[in-house]
Write a structure and sequence with these properties.
Elements lengths: L1 H14 L20 H15 L5 E5 H8 L3 H7 L10 E2 L5 H8 L9 H5 L1 H9 L1 E3 L7 E3 L12 H4 E2 L2 E8 L2 E9 L3 E2 L4 H19 L3 H30 L4
Antiparallel strand pairs: 1-2, 3-4, 5-8, 6-7
Length: about 240
C-alpha cells in the first residue's frame, strides 16, 4: 500500500498538464474492456515499445495472462523481457538513477495512468506527438507540452508537423500549437495507428482497474437487490402502520 501511495504522488505531477495544455481538445478513446483481442494487442505494443522505460509494477504477468486469455507459456515467451517469472510484478529493467539522468526524470510507472488522467487523455497523448527541433528528443506533444520523452511509436505513426496559429494576447502576437497535421513515413496508415493507440490505451485502462468489469456486473446485482428490498420494506411498513392510520 505504501508503494502504491508513493506511485500516485509521483504520477500526478509527471502526467499532469503542462502550462498551456489544459484547454487542449481530447479525442474520445471509446475503450471496450470486453474486447480481449484489443487488450492483448495493447499488451503486445506496450511491452515492445513502452516497457523498456515504463513499468506497470502493480500488475502481475500471471494475472494479466489469466484476465486476457493468454496462456502462461505465451506470456512467458512473448511478453516477459526482463527474465522475471510469470508470478512476479511487471517491472521494467531500466535503472531509475540512469533513467533520471538520461530523461531529466525517471519515467513513471503507468499502472494507474489511465485512472489518474482518463482514457481520453492517454489516447490523445499517444496521438499528439509532433516534430519540434527545439526539444531534446526532437518532438513535442499537444497534450503534454515540453514532454521529456521521445516518440517511441514514431516508427509506426511517422512524423507529424504542428498546426500553428497566431493569436493576439494583451496586444502581443502569440503562436500556439492547435493540433497536428497527418503523420508521414510510418509503417501504419492513420487508421491503423489510431487503432494501435486505442489498443495501448485499452491495456492501460484495464491495468488501472483489472476488476472493473466484475465490479460493474456486481453493481447490477446490488441495485437489483436494493430494489427488491425496497419493495419488501415498503409493504412491510404498510403492514406495521395500517392500524395506526
Amino acid at each position: 500500500m505504501k508503494k502504491l501511495l508513493i506511485a500516485l504522488v509521483a504520477l500526478v505531477p509527471t502526467l499532469g498538464f503542462a502550462a498551456g495544455g489544459q484547454n487542449v481538445h481530447l479525442e474520445k478513446a471509446n475503450i471496450d474492456l470486453n474486447d480481449k483481442e484489443s487488450l492483448v494487442r495493447g499488451l503486445d505494443l506496450f511491452q515492445h515499445y513502452c516497457s523498456g522505460c515504463h513499468s506497470t509494477q502493480y500488475q502481475r504477468y500471471e494475472r494479466v495472462a489469466n484476465d486476457l486469455g493468454v496462456s502462461i507459456d505465451e506470456m512467458r515467451t512473448k511478453f516477459v523481457f526482463t527474465g522475471a517469472k510469470v508470478g512476479e510484478l511487471m517491472e521494467n529493467a531500466i535503472p531509475e538513477k540512469e533513467a533520471a539522468k538520461w530523461f531529466g526524470a525517471a519515467p513513471p510507472d503507468l499502472t494507474l495512468a489511465a485512472r489518474v488522467r482518463g482514457e481520453d487523455w492517454v489516447y490523445s497523448y499517444l496521438k499528439g506527438f509532433y516534430k519540434d527541433p527545439s526539444r531534446p528528443f526532437g518532438v513535442n506533444n499537444t497534450v503534454f507540452p515540453s514532454v521529456g520523452m521521445p516518440h517511441v511509436l514514431e516508427g509506426l505513426q511517422g512524423i507529424a508537423t504542428p498546426v500553428i496559429e497566431t493569436e493576439v494576447v494583451d496586444g502581443k502576437e502569440v503562436t500556439k500549437v492547435k493540433g497536428v497535421n497527418p503523420a508521414v513515413g510510418g509503417s501504419m496508415n492513420a487508421e491503423e495507428y489510431d487503432q494501435a493507440a486505442r489498443d495501448i490505451t485499452g491495456f492501460l485502462v484495464y491495468s488501472a482497474e483489472p476488476i472493473k468489469l466484475e465490479r460493474q456486473a456486481l453493481g447490477v446485482w446490488v441495485l437489483a437487490f436494493l430494489f427488491i428490498f425496497f419493495v419488501v420494506a415498503y409493504f412491510l411498513k404498510k403492514e406495521y402502520w395500517k392500524d395506526v392510520h
